[in-house]
Amino acid sequence: MKRILILFLVITGLYIVFNQSVHFNLFGTGSSNNNTNGQAAITKNTKMLAIDVSSGNTTIIPEDRKDLKAVYTGKQMLTVKEDGDTVKITLKSKGFNWFDWSAFSEKSKLTIYIPKDYQRNMSIDLGSGNIDFSGESKNKPVNLDELTVHIGSGNMKLKNLNVKQFDHGGGSGNVDIDSLITKTGTFDIASGNLNIQHYTGAIKAEVSSGRLNIQLDKLIDSIEMDVSSGNAELDLPDKADFTLNGHVSSGNVSCDFPLTTKNLNKKSIKGTHGSGKYQIELDVSSGNIRIH
Fold first, then answer.
1. Does 1 share its domain with 140?
2. Is 139 among the domain residues?
3. Same structural domain for residues 1 and 144?
4. Are residues 156 and 280 in the same domain?
5. pLDDT (tens digit per residue) in 210-261
6. Residue (of 23, 96, 89, 101) closest to 59 by Cα position
7. What whole-number distance in Å separates Cα of residue 44 and Cα of residue 206?
8. What's this model's pTM, rounded to 2 decimal places?
9. Which domain covers residue 248, as residue numbers?
10. Number of other CB atoms surrounding residue 44 within 10 Å
11. How would you class 77 by CB atoms within 10 Å of its CB: exposed for 0-12, middle for 13-18, buried for 19 or more?
12. Fewest CB within 10 angstroms: 28, 178, 278, 286, which?
């Protein structure tokens, strides 16, 4: 009887080990990586490039080519497909996986090559991981009609961009932008960080509990900021012409520029610098805004 019981336990143990190994291989936590490529035609009818990445390391490279090519090494599933006027590039975990190991794998790498003369719309959605996207130089930027980025808890680096409309939505991730020229930039920050250097364009920003830092090369349009409990800094050119109108509940607004017709109290700050041409409207609940 004891021998039968021991044999039963051994068989049961082997069965469990076998099934666990199959489970790990099915859901992408094994030791092997997959090399996957995907391509899609980019035509005059292509109006949107939609990139959706759950995790890993992604680089977007504009180059001399007519199509889009994606090269992936890792354990997730890459999909590249044309859907009407949109080309969709999706990188997701295979099957149901309660824990995405690929987010911590340095071997998870996606490189997307796009035509550098593509100038219509693009959207980038990042869960976790890292994304890098940049133009050749400040004088040879990426040109787009509209660029929309959403970030969960990852890191995104953007550089040398010239877009007509820029929209940013951030959770708890970090975004660094170096050289962005746009007609209007819209920024919505929950609890992450957004740092922008060499910015030109109008600004509409909402900051909940995160941090927003923007350095402007030129002030050429209006600025609107609504800060709940986060922090924001505006680094303006020394000769910026603006009219400041700031309202405060229990937070703080400070301005290092000398202001004429200045009106300052605990609840508001108003004044002009230079000709006062461009409006800066600030609304602070319990956060902080500094202009310098």
1. no
2. yes
3. no
4. yes
5. 999 999 999 999 999 999 988 999 999 999 999 999 999 888 999 999 999 7
6. 89
7. 35
8. 0.84
9. 119-291
10. 6
11. middle
12. 286
